[in-house]
Amino acid sequence: MRRNYLAVLLIASLCVIATPAQSEVVSADTKMSLVKTITGDISPKSVRSSGNGLVSAHNMMYRHSVTIYDANTFELIKTVSDSVQLSKFGYSKYTSTNRGAPVEGAFSADGKYLYVTNYAMYGKGFNREGHDTCSPASRYDSSFLYRINLASYQIDNVYPVGSVPKVVETTPDNKFVLVSNWCS
Asked: CA dist 111 to 79, 117, 166, 168, 173, Å?
C-alpha cells in the first residue's frame, strides 16, 4: 500500500512539474490525472523537480539510493548509490565506506547540483541512528548532506550537518544550502 501511494505521489508530482507554474490556471475545477506510474527498485520518501527537466526520488534507507528521472519521458537517467568514503572528502575519522539514507533533496538554482539530506548514516563510526521521536538530548549521530554533480551523476562533495537532517533548500543566488535538523 505504501509503495503504491508513493508511486502515485511521485507521478502526481511529475505531472505537476511537467508544465511551468506560471502558465497554469488554478481553480476549484483544476484536476490532476495519472500520466504514468514509475516502478522499479525505489521506495521514495520524497521527490523533487529541478524545474529544468529532472526529477529526483530520495529512497531513504529502504533502497540506499537517489533515482533521477527525465521529467518529460519519465525514464530513469541514473541511480546514485548513497555509499561514500567520507575520508576521501577530508573526514579522516571515517575509514570505511559509509551509507546514508536519502530523505529530501534540493536542486541548485543554476541546475548544476542536487543536494540530498541523509536521515542517518550507517557503517563504522556511526552507532546511534536517528529517529523521528527525539530531542537534542537524544544524542543521535550527526549526519551528512551529499552534493550530486548533475553533469556526472556522482556524489562530488559532502557536508556535515546535525542529527536527522530532513528539509533542504538552496538559495536563489547559490550562496547557501539550508538544512533543518530534526533532532539537533
From this structure: 18, 18, 21, 15, 12
CA 130 to chain centre: 17
The pTM of the full predicted model, rounded to 2 decimals, is: 0.82
Tell whether the torsion through CA atoms of 102, 105, 107 and 108 is positive or negative: negative
State pLDDT tens for residues 143-182: 999 999 999 999 999 999 999 999 999 999 999 999 999 9
CB 145 within 8 A of CB 159: yes
**Those residues with Cβ within 8 angstroms of residue 171's Cβ, 6 or more apart along the chain or in another chain:** 109, 177, 178
Residue with cell 547540483: 113
**How many residues does this entry show for the chain?**
184
Which grid cell sits at 28?
Answer: 476549484
Beta carbons within 8 Å of 37's beta carbon, 6+ residues apart: 7, 8, 11
**What residues does 169 pair with on adjacent strands?**
178
Q: ∠ CA 83-7-17 to the nearest 5 degrees?
A: 90
